[in-house]
Amino acid sequence: MANNPYQKYQNTQVETSNQEKLVLMLYNGALKFVKQAKQGLKNNDYQVTNNCLIRTQNIINELMITLDMEQGGEIAQNLESLYDYMNRRLIEANINKSIEPMDEVINMLEELSDTWKQAMQNLKKERKVQKKQQVPSGGISVEG
């Protein structure tokens, strides 16, 4: 797989991305795989469905283990509970060959992804403001 240009691009993107972007990439990957699982189920391709649901669960597990419970406090605890719930729904979807739990997880992941994008935009704006407020060493700040 190392000779695959797409895989090289993906590896480079992951290796050079900041932490905020990596979380967004994980959400996007989870969404992609759960949608593929749903399509697999519609096509009665249970192998694809199973593989994609497992990949989705692996991504959700990665999101869960990277939570900083100390610094994240209540938000991290709520996300952990939500990720756990999504995993249980995906297991249910896989066992029962049911689309409804997949749709529920898709909706939750889309909402989390949208919220994360907004948080990234807010953080970017905040960093710009902080950068403007910083005074270079030896410089003079004139306010007013």
Provide the descriptors you would attach to this structure in a database record.
single chain, 144 residues, mainly alpha, Four Helix Bundle (Hemerythrin (Met), subunit A), elongated, FliS_sf, FliS, chaperone, cell projection
CATH architecture tag of the domain at 14-111: Up-down Bundle
Q: Output the CATH homologous superfamily of the domain at 14-111.
A: Flagellar protein FliS
Helix content range = over 70%
Order of helices and strands: HHHHH
> What is the approximate shape?
elongated
Detail the poorly predicted runs: none
Instruction: Report mean pLDDT, rounded to a whole number.
Output: 87
CATH topology of the domain at 14-111, anyone?
Four Helix Bundle (Hemerythrin (Met), subunit A)
Distance between the termini: 59 Å
Approximate strand percentage = under 5%
Separate helix tally? 5
CATH class of the domain at 14-111: Mainly Alpha
Sketch the major β-sheet. Answer: none
Number of strands: 0
Structural class: mainly alpha
Instruction: Give the C-alpha Rg.
Output: 20 Å
Report on this model:
With 144 residues, this protein is an all-alpha fold. It has a domain at 14-111: Four Helix Bundle (Hemerythrin (Met), subunit A). It is 83% helix and 0% strand. The chain contains five helices and no strands. It has helices at residues 5-16, 19-42, 46-65, 69-96, 99-133. Helix 2 (19-42) runs antiparallel to helix 3 (46-65) and helix 4 (69-96) runs antiparallel to helix 5. It is elongated, with a radius of gyration of 20 Å. The model has no long low-confidence stretch (mean pLDDT 87).
